[in-house]
Structures are given as C-alpha cells and as structure tokens.
Amino acid sequence: MKVFLALVAAAAMVAFAQPRQPQPPTAGKVAIFKEADLKPGMQATAWTVFQGTEAEPIPIEIIGVMKNAWGPRQNIILGKMGGKAARTNVAGGMSGSPVYIDGKLVGAVALRLSVFSPDAICGITPIESMLEINEIDQSRPADPKVPGTAVRASAQGGLLEQAAGAGATMVPIDTPVTLSGFSESTLREFGGMFQQMGLKPAQGGATGALLSPRPVSGWQNSLKPGEAVAGILVSGDMSMTGLGTVSYNDGKRVLAFGHPFFNLGPINMPMSKGEILMVLSSAFQPNKIGNATEIVGALRQDRHSGIMGLLGEAAEMIPVNVTMVSHAGVKPTEKKLNFNVFVHQKWTPFLMMVTLFNSIEGMNDHGENLTYKVRGNVQFADGSKISAVTMQAPSEAPVPPTMALATWWGEKFNKLFMNAVDTPKLNAVDLVVDLIPERRSAQIEQAWVASNEVEAGGEVPVRVFLRPFRGPRIERELKVRIPANMPKGDHRIVVSDADSLNRMQALATSNNRFLDISQTVSLLNQERSNTRVYVSLVEQKPTVYSEDKMLPSLPASVLNVMQSARTGNKMLVSMPETAVEQASADVDYAVSGSYALRVTVK
Fold first, then answer.
1. Full-model pTM
2. What share of the chain is helix, strand, coil (3-state, %, to 5)?
C-alpha cells in the first residue's frame, strides 16, 4: 500500500511539474491586453493552423512597440515567433493569427520584416485598431487594390518589397489567393496582375459547399480565433479565394487579417471556413496552401487594420453558366461549367474576363487554328437582358484569340459596373462557346451594283464578295432602299464589318457619363456582331447621338431646338454624315474590312 501511494504521489509530482498546454481560443467576448502595458521580453502565444482545421500555439517574444510605424498614431507591435513558425517563417495566410498574453488578446499577426532574415520577425496589429472597424462605415479608401490600379500598386509594392529585402520596412504579409480549377496558362497570363496588387496566386482546392453563396447549417460554431478564413471571389466549378486567419469572434462579428484584403471599404463578399494542407517553409516566400470549405457568413468591411464579417449572413453573387461546345469530333460534345462571381464595380469585370479565358483554356481541344464563337446573355433583375455574339479567329495580331475574347467579354461588364448613375443588379449570366477546328475569318474584298445610277424610292441589289482565310470566295446579296426624298446627286453605299459601325457610335457616346443602366443596356444591345456583313447608305446630313438614341438625318431646325432644351447632364454629339444601316447578312465568319460604292440618284 505504501509503495502504491508513493507511486501515485510521484506521478502527481511529474504531472504538476510539466507545463500546462495552452487551450485553443474560443468564440465570445475576450479581455483586451492594452498596448500601453506591453514590455519588451514579455512572452505571448499566437494561434494559427499549420495543417487541417485546428489552430496550434506559436510562442512569441515581444520585442517592443514601433510608434507610428503604419501611419499617424498607428503603432505596430514587434515580435519574434518561435515553435513551428521559426522554421516556416512568417507565412502568407498567417495574417490575422491572434496573439494573447495571459489569456488577454493583444492583436493579430499581420506584417513581416525583411525577406531573407533567419528570424521570424512579425508585426502585430493592436486589437484596439481592429475593433475600430465599424459595420456601418460607408467611406471608401483612396487606394484600393483593384485591377484598374494595378500599375500604381506595382510601383508602390515594388518599393516596399525592396525596402523589406533591405530589412528596413514592415510590409503586410502576402495574402495567398488560392485558385482551384484554373489552368496553368491562366495563372501565367493573370498571375502578374495579382502580384502587382500584393496578392500571391497559388493553386489549391475548394469543396462543393461553395456552389451556393448561402451559409451552411452549423455556421454558429464556425471561425474560432486562430482558424483559417477565406474571402470568396469565385466559387463553383472554378474558385478563387483569399486566405487568412481569424483574429476575433464575438459570436456574430468576425475580425481577421490585421491588414487590408483589397482595401475596398464596404464590401459584400461571401466568407468561408478553410482547411490548411501544409505550410511551405521558405526564407523568401513562405505560404500556407489550403482549401476554402464552407460558406458561413459574409464579409462587410475591408479596412486598413483588417477585414470584418458577420456570421450567418449571405452575400449575393452572380451565377454564371458556361457551355463549351467542341466541334472536333463527328458530333458536337458539350462541357458545362457553373460558378458564381463576386459583385464589385472593379472586380466583377475582371473576374468575368478571367473565368471566360480559363473556361476556354481548360478544354482538351483548345489549341492553334481554332475559331471561337461566343453567344452571351446577361439577365437583369428587372427582366431586361443583354444579348451579344462575337467570333474570334487566329490572326497575326499580337493578342491571342482567347485573350481578345476575354477582353471583349470583360468590357461589357466594365461598361455596366462603371455606370455613374446606378449599380446593375444581375440575376444570371449564360454563355455558349463554340470551338470550331478551323480558321473562320473573312475579309470584305469587293462589292458590286448592276448600275451606278439609281432612282429615289427604289431598291438596289448589292452583291458582296468576301475572301476567307482558305477556300472559295463567299458571296452575299443584300438590298438597299433609296429613300423617296433623297436628293439627286452622288451618294455612297458602304459595305462594312461590325467594328466600323460600332466604333462610330462608341466614339459619339464615350463622353456621356450620365447614361443610366437601362440606357447602357440599350447601347450594348445595339452593338453589331462581327459574324455579319452590313450595308449602309451614307447621306450628307448630320447624325445626332443623344443618350442611347441615334437620330439620323436630323434637320438643322430640330437640332437647334434640342441644343437649346438640353441640360448640363445631357450631351448631344453630332457627326457630319449619316450612315443608315439598310441590311445585313450572317456569314458565320469573323468579318473584317469595308468597301465603298458610289451611286448617283437621278
């Protein structure tokens, strides 16, 4: 019995002597460790995920506080990370890892110092700064990370990286943008744009739970401090997510990153849980590699000191359905892709461009000497829609057909989302892309009329000849009606491609910044398709463009009345000639060029 009691006592003493393992933080209110109480040498603990979904502790030694390091009255706490982080270094995806002293929250790991330093030196954003993020703040930062400002971001980012390499400046930890379902060629073409904005593209994965932007059941128990969190740019058959770490969760409001994601200000972006596959150790560019898993809420703010989201809330996305039709075999074969796109003025057009490019590049028969025909429909919440058709064939142009198509598609959304009057509300986007295994381009070579003398009020048959890349000439016959009131004398009949007519209207309306969404939709629907050949009658009378309307052959008296009645917000643009489209014919080739005929009205 004495021996047994001695063994029990010895075991108890051993257990007492062993250091107590810290417990992972949980959601709920937490005590705050005041920045003013920090002292060099204090021992802290950060929490982050190295593999899976469970956060692990990282010992941190507080070095001190860098005063005004990130702006006026914006201090940064300097720390040295130990444990696993000493080997991995301060990795992308650790942004937001919460730091505690004696169970009180100090802040979030958010910055790094130097690139090749053997020490894992991190910058910690004080939690007081992060708690200032207010849900109802609608102010917009002046320097957001958006595709349209990539050049400026590149210059700033380059200077910061050089300074960091010299060991002089704290810079935000890179945010890994994980791309799933994206081809290597897409990463190569667009990866530079992400890097210029301070975002590191990396291949990863995502689950089927991201197909819906609605929070999954059980969201109430999600995103504990130290766990992985992701903002969703694209979800579905291809996904694009920004990965970081949860800093704070009071049961409803979630704070993360400790630095901006895109610095967009108020946003409406799906927020998901994540799992980490591994942390790639590197003295130069360490990164977490992981997957976004289930949507559990919505991000509402993207600010200088972090991002803020609300659990259980939904962020609307634009559902996109793409049908790829391959004509390489005996029978056409289809491949359907379904995904959702983040709604934002600058990001939506860019994401539409990237996803179309990737949809094409991911086809097995994608390659040289293929022609791509795209038919797109954009459905609006009010029932209106945009329908567009175009074709891109290989050419000697420096831009490949897939990139030209992606740019054409992205520009449609750029015109919608850059609207100065209102924000478009889209219900769905549908695309059909035909991959045709030949070079289907045709140049307008010649046009012909039986007689150059015509009568007012009659019809003139015009024969059009097009030269394809290979094969016999293509011939079409179209009829031009000569108006009964057309003055006698010389006039022109112009046979042209779509670009010639679209360019004229685009130039006339480009300076009108006050078109609303319905007028913009009307203008986009007026754009001609490059698979058709057009015949127009040119008159020596001015054309006036007012908002989305073209007013051909306008009398001078009517123009004067319109000029006097217009307001400062409504511009009238006139051109000296009127080209009235008379007829068009589908050629099912990418048509280019123009040809003019002179006729005399007797």
1. 0.87
2. 20, 40, 35
